[in-house]
Amino acid sequence: MSGKPRLTYCNGRGRMEPVRWLLAAAGVEFEEIFLETREQYEKLIKDGVLMFQQVPLVEIDGMKMVQTRAILSYIAGKYNLYGKDLKERALIDMYVEGITDLMQMILMFPFSPPEAKEKNLDSIKERATNRYFPVFEKVLKQHGQEFLVGNKFSWADVQLIEAILAVEEKIPAVLSEFPQLQVI
Questions:
Q1: Residue 143 in this model has a pLDDT that exceeds 50
Q2: Which residues form the GST C-terminal domain (predicted)?
C-alpha cells in the first residue's frame, strides 16, 4: 500500500464525499478506486475487506476502514482537526451529527421519485433554514470566531461548508438570512 490513503467507492459523491473534503482540508493527497461493476464489490466482500459488506472503504496507515463516521473521526484526529481537548471534541461531534442529519436528506434526494422531488426539496429548504442553519448562525455569532469550535479550523467547519454548498446547489439563495454563514 502506498503512503497515500486509498479511497474505494462508486464514482459519485455519496458517503465518500465528506472523506474527500476532510482529506483535502488537511492537505492530504489520496488515490481513488471507483467500483464499476457488481463483481468488484462482491470480490471485496468475498475477500473479507468490507466488514459490514458496504462501502466506503478507506485504506490508511495499514488499516482498511469502513463506516464513514469512524473514517472521518480517524482522519480528523490524525490531522489535528478534532479539537484540542475532550470538550472541543464533544462540540465538534455534536455539530457534525447535526450536519449529518441534514446531509442525509440531501444524499437521499436524487433517489426521490419524480413526483416527490418538489416536496423533498421543500423539506430540505425548510429544515436547512428553520432547524440547522439557524443553529450554526447563532454559534458563530456567539462564539465571535470564524470557526465553530475554539479558534481553529476543525472537522465541524469542513462538514458545515460541504452542507452549505450542497444545499446551495439545490436552493441558491438559501443563505440570504444567514450573514455569518455567508462569510464561511
A1: yes
A2: 85-184
Is 141 strand, coil or helix?
helix
Identify the burial level of 47 via C-beta atoms within 10 angstroms of its C-beta, where 0-12 means exposed, 13-18 middle and 19 or more buried: exposed
Mean pLDDT, range 84-95, rounded to an integer: 96
Domain boundary among 60, 79, 98: 79
pLDDT at 2: 56
Across the beta sheet with 57-60, the strand order is 31-35, 6-10, 57-60, 63-66
d(CA 37, CA 171): 33
Asked if the structure places residue 178 within a domain, the reply is no
- Reply yes or no: is the peptide bond before residue 56 cis, omega within 30 of 0: yes
Asked whether residue 101 falls in the same domain as residue 127, the answer is: yes
Q: How many Å apart are CA 78 and CA 133, to the nearest integer?
A: 28
Whether 57 has a pLDDT exceeding 90, the answer reads yes
Residue 52 structural domain:
6-79
Confidence of residue 1 (pLDDT cuts 50, 70, 90): very low
In this prediction the pTM is 0.87
